[in-house]
Amino acid sequence: MASCSQPNPDQPDLLSSLPDELLIKILSFLPTHIAARTSILSRRFRHLWEASPCVHLIAFRREGFITMFNRALLLRNPSHPLVSLSLEYSGSPLPASFIHSLRAKVSSFGVRHLTVRGRYLIPILPIISSINCLQSLSLPVINFEFDQFPSGITLTCLKSLSLELHSFYSKDQIGQFLSELCSLEDLHLDTSYIDSLCLSSPSIRKLKLIMHSTLNLHSVSLFLPSLESLHLEIREYFNCNLFRIHGEVPLLQRAVIGLNCVHARDVSAITRLLSFISNVKELSISVKEPQDEKHPIPFLFEPGKDVPNFHNLKHLDVHLCMHEHSFEAVIIMLHNCPNLESLKLVHKIPKSTIMTKGGERTDRESKLPRNADGNYHYAFVRNFHLGENIKEFMKLLAKKSSSKMHAQN
Question: N or C: which end of the chain has fewer CB within 10 A?
Answer without folding.
Answer: N
